[in-house]
Amino acid sequence: NREEFASATAEIKAAGIVGFDTESKPTFAVGEVSAGPHVLQFALPDKAYLFQIHQAAGYPFLIELLQSEQVIKVGFGLKSDGKHIYAKLGINLASVVDL
């Protein structure tokens, strides 16, 4: 619910640096294009938050986190993830460290 999204967002923002990744449903047919990402993950030292894209109530919070210059998102293959996020949500990731 909205309160849970707000609480998670506040914790993620307070952390400043988070592990970040996306997950998409796999494709099995040749030429099939994924409709992902379906889940976005933000990892803190002691917990992780999973945002499911189909939860529209979480969109404002998710977009705030993804575009935040104050939340440094660290992960692997984030250039590709960024392209998928742009295709799905129409926004660019900010403050990304792609290892």
Question: Could you explain the architecture of this structure?
Answer:
- This protein has about 100 residues and is an alpha/beta fold.
- Helix content is about 35%, strand content about 25%.
- The chain has 3 helices and 5 strands.
- It has a 5-stranded mixed β-sheet with strand order 3-2-1-4-5.
- The longest helix has 14 residues, at about 1-15.
Write the layout of secondary structure elements.
Blueprint: H1 2-15, E1 17-23, E2 39-43, E3 48-52, H2 59-67, E4 72-75, H3 78-89, E5 96-98
Parallel strand pairs: 1-4, 4-5
Antiparallel strand pairs: 1-2, 2-3
Tags for this entry?
single chain, 99 residues, 5-stranded mixed beta sheet, 24% strand
